[in-house]
Write a structure and sequence with these properties.
Length: about 180
């Protein structure tokens, strides 16, 4: 058997394990958004049973640091270039949307609810939003420098000061205190 024949099965197994971790986390967290376990038995909507989308801040130590800031309450906002969302086939989130944030290893760690969404040009992002992202030194200047560098790398010539940026505010729904509980 060649490596090419084994690799897809390995990736499928990794995906299945990740799906199980997300599903188990959702079962533990869903009560925090008013969905009880009886909804599964008595019948609810697909939204009650199907976990919300999951994502990470990346797969490195910086991603885990940003997640830690979410968990301790310092980070309550994020931003993405609208062009970046379009590239990966995602839509701008809506107020009330739920999402699961995973750490760099793919383990689910936080359930978030979107509380505010705004699309503004890059050069009109406020100092208040930059501070809510809790990145760098928290200043608007630091935020602009960091995000411009990142988006120039990803978008190349498409970056400009008038680039549309999606600003999202969120609240941590689960866990609410202490470390993320283990998911069996």
């Amino acid at each position: 058997m060649t490596d090419e024949q084994v690799e897809p099965a390995e990736h499928a197994a990794e995906g299945a394990v990740e799906d199980l971790r997300i599903a188990a986390f959702w079962q533990a967290a869903r009560g925090h958004v008013g969905m009880g376990k009886l909804d599964q038995v008595l019948g609810g909507t697909a939204d009650d049973v199907v976990p919300p989308p999951s994502w990470s801040y990346g797969d490195d130590a910086e991603a885990d640091d940003l997640l830690a800031r979410v968990l301790d309450g310092r980070k309550t906002a994020t931003a993405l270039a609208v062009a970046e969302l379009t590239q990966v086939g995602l839509e701008v989130p809506r107020v009330g949307d739920l999402s699961i944030v995973v750490d760099g290893a793919g383990d689910p760690r936080a359930l978030l609810r979107t509380t505010e969404v705004e699309v503004v040009p890059f050069d009109q992002v406020s100092a208040e939003h930059a501070a809510a992202e809790a990145e760098g030194d928290g200043s608007l200047e630091s935020w602009r420098a960091q995000h411009e560098e990142s988006w120039r790398r990803v978008l190349g010539e498409a970056f400009s000061p008038s680039l549309d940026v999606m600003l999202e505010r969120f609240e941590l729904i689960y866990p609410t205190t202490g470390p993320t509980p283990a998911v069996d």
